[in-house]
Amino acid sequence: MAFTCWCPRKSQQNFPSVEEDTKLQYSQLNKFSWQELQVATDSFSNESILGRDGFGPFGKVYKGILEDGSLVAIKRMKSKNTTGGERQFLKVMKMITIAEHQNLLKLIGICITPTERLLVYPYMANGSVASLLRNQGPSQPLLDCPIRRQIALGSAKGLSYLHEHCNPRIIHCDVKAANIFLDDNFEAFVGDFAVSKLINYKDSHIISTVHGTIGHIAPEYLSNGRCSEKIDVYAYGIMLLELITGQKAFDLSRLSNEDDNVMLLDWVKRFVKENKLEVLVDPNLGNNYVGAEIEQLMQIALLCTHGLPEYRPKMSEVVRMVESVGLAERWDEWQKMEISGQEMGPILNPTSRIFDSTHNLHAVELSGPR
């Protein structure tokens, strides 16, 4: 969808670093004027707020209606002068511009003024996976089993592209249900690249500060900062468990239920070992699911969350397994490792090295379901 470029030449002259530092192809991006987005959001009114960014340089996210009637979601940077904000803004733009895939949330356009930085995305009619899992009211669309499998496949394809086909390749670093967005057909789009990293496989990747969301962070990343595409595979596995169970990856309320497993993965493994799969299925599904399909997704999730990164599959393998190709063989291997005791122990406790993307705000919502 094309939009008229309203961005005045003066604004671009006051912000030359964008093109110089990121070398983006601006001919592919729409340039929105501040006035255009102000009208679209009713002067950025509270009624237009969809949510708040859980991490990174951006603050509130607004729903906008453009002059042609198109619905958009607009991320507004907290402040141009926020410490590291300008650098992170450039980084997010670079990530989004490099990565183009049908299952990645696409950047529609930008607005840059001497004091403002805004990103414009398509409006996601069904919000995030997390918003639907957590708010299953009578008026909310039901995430039935086929839709959950569709979400699993679409998000796996998006991550596979980032890891194996994007140039340079990208590690998302914060894969979770709150960062998987759904359009009106429930197609899945991986979004929020605020803490993503460009990778060069010739270099070793040891990160001094761990970013992510508690419950989704891979053990090796948490313990020694080892960063590879396998941390996304691990987090994807946790996201699958969210899809299957409807529960949060980290939930202190499980303690009140006389359960000492605040981590979803530990809680799931307990019932898998007891062969009580039916206990794990999201109650919102009722009896409207095929046990064999849920079991397959559970097996993929456990393969992805192996304690040792070298034993986790690549995301391209995950895509095939969700499509029911090669899962049985990998699952047999996993079971043998479990029996032989090669699997790592319980997930490490969070430390002060982590920047939790849910530490103060809910995840970004690019839609309206509430």
SSE map:
Blueprint: H1 9-13, H2 17-22, E1 30-31, H3 34-40, E2 49-52, E3 58-65, E4 71-77, H4 85-98, E5 109-112, E6 117-122, H5 129-134, H6 145-164, E7 169-171, E8 180-182, E9 188-190, E10 197-199, E11 210-212, H7 219-224, H8 230-245, H9 253-256, H10 264-273, H11 277-280, H12 291-304, H13 315-322, H14 327-340, E12 354-356
Helix pairs in contact: 6-8, 6-13, 8-12, 12-14
Using brief descriptors, characterize the structure shown.
36% helix; 14 helices; 370 residues; Transferase(Phosphotransferase), domain 1; alpha+beta; Phosphorylase Kinase, domain 1; two-stranded antiparallel ribbon
Describe this structure in words.
- The protein has 370 residues and is an alpha+beta fold.
- The chain has helices at residues 9-13, 17-22, 34-40, 85-98, 129-134, 145-164, 219-224, 230-245, 253-256, 264-273, 277-280, 291-304, 315-322, 327-340, and strands at residues 30-31, 49-52, 58-65, 71-77, 109-112, 117-122, 169-171, 180-182, 188-190, 197-199, 210-212, 354-356.
- The chain folds into 2 domains: 9-122, Phosphorylase Kinase, domain 1; 129-356, Transferase(Phosphotransferase) domain 1 (Transferase(Phosphotransferase), domain 1), CATH 1.10.510.
- The strands form 4 sheets. The chain has a 6-stranded mixed sheet, with helices on both faces.
- A hairpin with a 5-residue loop joins strand 3 and strand 4.
- The longest helix is centred in the middle third of the chain and has 20 residues, at 145-164.
- The protein is globular and about 60 Å long.
- The two termini are 27 Å apart.
- Residues 1-25, 342-355 and 358-364 have low confidence and may be disordered.
